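are you around this afternoon, could really use another pair of eyes. what follows is a protein written twice so to speak, once as letters and once as structure tokens for the fold. i want to understand how the tokens follow from the sequence so walk me through it. anything you notice is useful, everything is just below.
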Amino acid sequence: MTFTRTTLALLLALAAGPAWAQSQPKTVVELFTSQGCASCPPADALLTELAKDPQVLALTLAVDYWDYVGWKDTLALHGHSLRQKAYAEQRPDRKVFTPQVVVDGTVSAKGSDRAALQRAVLTARSNGGLAVPVSVTRDDDAIEITLPESAAATGGADLWACPVARSQTVAIGRGENGGRSVTYSNVVRGWLRVAIWQGDARRYRVPLKELGREGADSVAVLVQTGSPNSPGPIIGAAFLPLD
């Protein structure tokens, strides 16, 4: 079967529901990428395309393990390398590579392969998808996150608030991509573990100063089962511009 951009867009919109004040995605796509990875720019471009779809929370997680090849990634966080490895430990294949996407915290695919990404989205949705509706709003110098009562968080789930830069263009000076300028979309700039949610109806208030918003203009909220060292499925998500 041949997969086209139109087909992917239609599939990503299958579960579309009522509009929210903020973006209420149906799928979370995390792209593990690096400025020092020659095969990553096509995946970065595909993620930029996906980031335009309100049904998808497409996030760039820059890793640091390619820094030794001659260029230190200016957006990388070591925690992203650890998160990618932790994901791999939960899967039978145990593979860690760039560009790699993880969909809804469960399904891995090559980040530059449109057809593989499409299959990963369908597989993740067939496994239950994002069952928890998440509301996030701006209230002066804070954000408020509202979660309904839900059995999906049985055993507890981490509630994360991540400052995000919606667009970052980097002129890469050396390494495998030396001389190229690459635009990255929805770049995650940090992780704040707001709470361990037990599935009860709750509202959390997070001061913006706690987000550490350097270079960020938005916030992504993730509700994820498991733990940082053993991440499970993402069961809820939302995205809110802060500017």
Confidence is low (pLDDT under 50) at residues 9-21. The chain is about 20% helix and 35% strand. The chain has one domain: 5-10+22-241.
